[in-house]
Amino acid sequence: MPECWQGEHSIETPYGVLHVTIHGAPKGKRPIILTYHDVGLNREGTPLLFNPSPEPRAMLYKSCFDNLFQNEDMQEVIKNFVVCHIDAPGQEEGAPVFPVGYQYPSLDQLADMIPCVMQFFNFRSIIGIGVGAGAYILSRYTLNYPNSVEGLVLINMDPNAKGWIDWAAHKLTGLTSSMTDMVVTHLFSQDEIYNNTELVQRYRHAIANSTNLANIQLYWNSFNSRRDLNIERETETLKCPVMLVVGDQGPHEDATVECNTKLDPTQTSFLKMADSGGLPQVTQPGKLTEAFKYFVQGMGYMPSACMTRLSRSRTTSLSSATSMDGTRSRSRTLSQGSEAGHVPTSTSQTMEVSC
């Protein structure tokens, strides 16, 4: 991949044009980090002016990944990998509104657009980071193209199609709530919305004032029309290492826990982030970065990466596991406590770690 390819690109696919942004220079045969954002967000935000408080000219992002990739601790990761951010069609800042009647791609079709990106840049393999709808899309891509995926970080992952009750509730909500309210309810927990935190205010304002709100609704409709991934631990499941991430106060905890039961326990890490709501990558980027470093170390990359946050908790689960020193034959649950310490290099139990 030539270094001149850094920056923004528009890539033609059978299902429309993808907006892609590349950061970093090629690092030999290493995989690239490929991100896919959730509904109502985009890969990186353009600041909007917002003033929810007496502080003047507060800056607002509609971004899914800015806080994570601009975090100081993440810079060590960025130096070791090329990063590729994908915007779902029409979701990037300033995207023109699709014409009335435009058939937006399904989530399965969005997954089938990714090979065009891989071919355009001659990428061999990826480590995917997806949130919500983006997590589903990367999972579908992995099921279809398993040899091109070395690992997945799935935040707020729901592998299931909507049931009839959920579908009916969604239709009823659509009659009584605005598009902005529905997306905000998807992104944040009821407690976060009830407390009207500054973060909720910022994202609500950004979504409501998006010039491409109609495009967001199309992505939202595709997400709510998704089909079941049909993954099961004993039959068909994701074959690569997976780190599941969810906030313990977020709206997608139950779905992520259920997803964990469908994945190979020897390949899966489960990180429940304490005191975190619907957007853990936004509110706790340092903690997620540290967990990500351990994750890529488990795949044999960045062996000398500096670790400063994750520490061992006194509590352990009853699951059996091997070590956290980089071997793939392990099953572990990561959560957060308050005790300082270190992460052990070998253990016979699944360790809960704090950040």
From TrEMBL:
Function: Contributes to the regulation of the Wnt signaling pathway. Down-regulates CTNNB1-mediated transcriptional activation of target genes. May be involved in neuron differentiation.
Matching Pfam families: Ndr
Homology family: Belongs to the NDRG family.
Feature: compositional bias, Low complexity: 312-323
Name used for this protein in its record: Protein NDRG2
Region (Disordered): 312-355
Stored Gene3D superfamilies: alpha/beta hydrolase
PANTHER family listed in its UniProt record: N-MYC DOWNSTREAM REGULATED
Any Gene Ontology CC annotation: cytoplasm
InterPro entries membership: AB_hydrolase_fold, NDRG
Composition bias type Polar residues, residue spans: 332-355
Highest taxon of the lineage: Eukaryota
Cell compartment(s), UniProt: Cytoplasm
Main location: cytoplasm
BP-aspect Gene Ontology terms: cell differentiation; nervous system development; Wnt signaling pathway
Keywords, sorted A to Z: Cytoplasm, Developmental protein, Differentiation, Neurogenesis, Wnt signaling pathway
SUPFAM superfamilies per UniProt: alpha/beta-Hydrolases (SSF53474)
